């Protein structure tokens, strides 16, 4: 083993030992950013970049499981991405379908699609639903796969669902306006029943939310990593956990 590998392993162990179970996040959201730039830097095509990113997902979930994370949300495809040229979107959807199916077939994690499935091609929506059905009842970490996801779209869908639900119960708009609480909308989000993300990680050096979990991330801690997603290593994840543990969380402050 090369000296650099030995030093890396020693540093990794040191980071792991310093993390306290009491300070680790329950829910981690990840913006898997930088696949295209990773590919361009290496003279590869976009498809190769997305595949390299997909290949890094299972390992990342292993790390989260080791850290006893309860929920992971992976942003795989935004609603804006659906407007990209078909030559890019079609291969990406195929990679997502295969990746989600492979994760589900391990039956280690509960696969929970989040997003507007009605905006997706029928085959993609079907594969996502199959993955959810296959892992229903699995006793393990919940993995939200955000495909066709947009934060504004989610809030719009939640409000629409809430209105339909209250109308079905005979509630008038006026009555709803008088009694409306934050919780009424939260009950209709894609992630209803789950804890909000404690930590949101974005790779590739970009430092913006881009609509990811807009509602749920109101009190989240953010960690921005320079590495492109295909290069995101265990040590990078441990650094994110360390940064999270060192912060004094101010809910609403």
Automatic annotation (TrEMBL):
Record note on cofactor: Binds 2 magnesium ions per subunit.
UniProt keywords, alphabetically: Magnesium, Metal-binding, Transferase
Record: residues binding substrate: 34-38, 50, 78-80, 84, 202, 208-210
Subunit structure: Homodimer.
CDD domains: Cis_IPPS
GO biological processes: polyprenol biosynthetic process
Protein's UniProt name: Isoprenyl transferase
Alphabetized GO MF terms: ditrans,polycis-polyprenyl diphosphate synthase [(2E,6E)-farnesyl diphosphate specific] activity; magnesium ion binding; Z-farnesyl diphosphate synthase activity
EC number of the protein: 2.5.1.-
Pfam families attached to this UniProt entry: Prenyltransf
Gene Ontology annotations for the cellular component aspect, listed alphabetically: plasma membrane
Keyword Thylakoid among UniProt keywords: no
Residues given in the record as Mg(2+) binding sites: 33, 221
Record: active site: 33, 81 (proton acceptor)
This protein's record includes keyword NADP: no
Enzyme class: transferase
Domain of life: Bacteria
Reported cofactor(s): Mg(2+)
Family, similarity comment: Belongs to the UPP synthase family. Z-FPP synthase subfamily.
Gene3D superfamilies: Decaprenyl diphosphate synthase-like
């Amino acid at each position: 083993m090369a000296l650099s590998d030995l030093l890396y392993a020693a540093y990794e162990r040191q980071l792991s030992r310093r993390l306290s179970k009491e300070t680790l996040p329950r829910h981690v959201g990840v913006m898997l950013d930088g696949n295209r730039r990773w590919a361009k830097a290496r003279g590869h095509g976009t498809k190769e970049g997305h595949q390299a990113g997909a290949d890094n997902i299972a390992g990342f979930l292993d790390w989260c499981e080791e850290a006893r994370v309860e929920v992971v949300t992976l942003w795989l495809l935004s609603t804006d991405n659906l407007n990209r040229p078909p030559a890019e979107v079609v291969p990406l959807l195929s990679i997502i379908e295969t990746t989600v199916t492979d994760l589900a077939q391990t039956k280690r994690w509960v696969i929970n699609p989040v997003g507007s499935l009605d905006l997706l091609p029928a085959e993609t929506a079907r594969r996502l639903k199959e993955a959810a059905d296959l892992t229903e009842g699995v006793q393990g970490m919940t993995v939200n796969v955000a495909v066709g996801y947009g934060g504004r779209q989610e809030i719009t869908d939640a409000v629409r669902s809430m209105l339909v639900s209250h109308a079905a119960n005979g509630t008038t708009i006026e009555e709803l306006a008088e009694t409306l609480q934050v919780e009424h909308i939260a009950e209709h989000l894609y992630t209803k029943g789950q804890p909000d993300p404690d930590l949101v990680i974005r790779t590739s050096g970009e430092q913006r939310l881009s609509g990811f979990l807009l509602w749920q991330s109101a009190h989240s801690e953010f960690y921005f990593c320079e590495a492109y997603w295909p290069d995101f290593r265990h040590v990078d994840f441990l650094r994110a956990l360390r940064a999270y543990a060192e912060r004094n969380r101010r809910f609403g402050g």
